Amino acid sequence: MLSVEKWLEGKICMVTGAARGMGKALAMKYAEHGANVVLMDVNKESVEAAAKEIEALGVQALPLKVDVTSSLEINHALDEVESRFTAIDVLANCAGISTSSLILDVEEEEWDRVFNVNLKSVYLLSRRVAKNMINNNVKNGKIITISSQASKIGELGNGPYSASKAGVNSLTQVLGLELAEYGIAVNAVCPGYVNTEMIQQVFQKRGPIEGMTPKEYEETLTSQVPMKRMAEPEEIAEFMLFLSSEKANYITGVSLTIAGGKTII
Ligand SMILES: NC(=O)c1ccc[n+]([C@@H]2O[C@H](COP(=O)([O-])OP(=O)(O)OC[C@H]3O[C@@H](n4cnc5c(N)ncnc54)[C@H](O)[C@@H]3O)[C@@H](O)[C@H]2O)c1
């Protein structure tokens, strides 16, 4: 029988937004490739359920309820991770939220919330985890963040989100430069439309802004994708797995679009 090569055997991989969607798909891939996985999410029940699925794959899973906008909660969680596993090999920032308002209608509170979840959390977590990697002499550490095609093209009714994700791309470049001397590679992926609960909420809320039903809006958006469909979460996770592995040691500072040809930049 053909044995499957495991790319992350024995590594410690930490995933935020791990309760569902792309974060969960990635956590599952890490486990399939032999990693022990720390799962963080603001949704306690779901993140614990995801951890059970991961343990069934024969690796260790540590679920933690964490709001990634809180440095206090992050620091408590990292203390727990370090006392259980010591060194962290991979951080995947997958937690994110979207908006559905025109800039003229966006309240300051909504703007701040989106920036805190999508961008500030990446700074808080990357800083804390990079220090862990440096202090423990981790070889070829990896930090990967889910940005969005919205960071490159802007999206109507999605202003704070687009701007926050453009910030993620910029932070990825800076972190790539500053952490290169420690052998830590930092990259982002910029997905187009991905079949998760987040995109279904977008269809529900933004369709009416565009004068369409959610179904009409979904069909309009997918018809604009050259491949004529959304991505499945596993398709994004597959490339993030590659970026998390030793195969990608020399790739750093890039924000790569995965959008079925819609955004060719
Ligand atoms: N779905 C898409 O079409 C799409 C496209 C491009 C980029 N993205 C990005 O991909 C990432 C994952 O999105 P998804 O589609 O899987 O979304 P999702 O809504 O299915 O999952 C997001 C997860 O993040 C968690 N989360 C939200 N706020 C949090 C907080 N403050 N602290 C901790 N956890 C928090 C949620 O509980 C949820 O489990 C996000 O960063 C999103 O912006 C999504």
Automatic annotation (TrEMBL):
Alphabetic keyword roster: Oxidoreductase
Pfam families recorded: adh_short_C2 (PF13561)
EC number(s) stated in the UniProt entry for this protein: 1.1.1.47
Keyword Iron-sulfur assigned: no
Keyword DNA damage in annotation: no
Family classification: Belongs to the short-chain dehydrogenases/reductases (SDR) family.
Protein name: Glucose 1-dehydrogenase
